[in-house]
Amino acid sequence: xxxxxRIRKMTLGRALDKYCTSVSVHKRGHLQEFYRINxxxxxxxxxxxxxxxxxxxxxxYRDGRLATVSERTGRPVSANxxxxxxxxxxxxxxxxxxxxxxxxxxxxxxxxxxxASSGRTRRLTSTEERRIGRALRLRNAExxxxxxxxxxxxxxxxxxxxxxxxHVDLHLGIAHLPLTxxxxxxxxxxxxxxxxxxxxxxxxxxxxxFSYTSNGFKSAWRTVITSLGIQDLHFHxxxxxxxxxxxxxxxxxxxxxxxxxxxxxxNMLRRYTHLRATQLVSKLDVxxxxxxxxxxxxVPYPAEICEDDNGSVAVRFADLEHxxxxxxxxxxALRNASTxxxxxxxxxxxxxxxxPPPGPVSANDSRRLLIKPF
Length: 374
What we know:
Blueprint: H1 12-22, H2 30-41, H3 55-66, H4 79-100, H5 126-139, H6 141-153, H7 157-161, E1 168-169, E2 174-177, E3 186-189, H8 192-199, H9 214-228, H10 237-248, H11 254-261, H12 266-271, H13 277-284, H14 286-295, E4 301-307, E5 313-317, E6 323-327, H15 330-351, E7 368-371
C-alpha cells in the first residue's frame, strides 16, 4: 500500500510571495504579475491554507472583484483584469501541486471565468493628436518623440522606452528590438516622421534613447492627458491607432503589418485593428475611381473631314501629328478614324506617354467634328 504524501501547509499569501520570487521574476511581464500578486494578497482568501481553498472560495473572489470599484479609475474592475488574476492563481496552483506539495488539486480550473471583453475600440482623433503633440513638445522633446514613435511604429510603451542608440539606424530607417514581449527580436521600420522625431534630439552613439522609466512616463502621460481634459485615452490605445493606420494605408497586407507590430496571432491583430468607416467608404468606390481614371485616357478628339475630286473621304486629326485616315465613304471614314484614335490612345497609355490635349471645335464649322474612340 502506497504511503500518502503529507501536505505541506502554506497560506495562499506565502505561496504568492514564493511564486513572485521564484517564477514571476523570470517572466517578461513580471511587473504586471507583481501588481496582480499584491491585489491577491489583500484578499481574505490569502490568509487561508492552499489545500483548504475550494472552488467556492475562488468563485467568491471572482464575484467580489467584479463588484469592486477601482480607486485609480473610479470604474468597476474589468472582466479582463479578473481573468488575468484567476489565470495567475491557476498557474500558481499547478506549480504548487507538482513542485511544492502544498495542495492536491487546482480549485481554479473549473470555476467560470468572466466573459472576455471585445477589446477597446478607442481611436485617436486628429484634434486630440495635435493637442497632445503640442502639450508634450512644451514639456520636453523626449515625451514628444515617444508620442510620435507610438503612432508611427506601433511599438509598445516598453519597447519604445527600452530603445538604445546602438540599435537605431536612422540612415536605414530601422529600430532593432533585441527582446520583445513575445520573447523574440524584431526590426521595426521607421517612417520619415519617426526618423525626424529621433533626429531632433539624437544622442550618443550608444546608450538608452530615452531617460524615462515606465512609472515616470506613465505619470507624465497621465498629467498631460488630465490637463487637456481628454477622456478615456490610454497610451496603449496609440498602438491600436498605429496598427489601424497601417491597414488604412492600403499598401500593406496582414502579414506585413504583423511583421511591423510584432503580433504573432492574427486574431489578436484583428482585435487591435479598428478601421475608420470613412476610410472604408473610399475603398468601396475604388472600382468606380479606377474606371473614371481609365476613361480619362480615352477622350474624343476634334477632326476635319473632307472629300476629294475622286470621291474618297479623308479625316484629319490636327492635334495628333496631322494623322489622316482615308476611306471610300463618309461612314467608313468616320469608323476608321474612331478605331485609329483608340489604337493611338491605347499605345500611349501602355507606354506611359501623354498625348497632346484636344484642341477647340468651332460651332460654326461644319467640317470640324469630334471623333470618339471605340
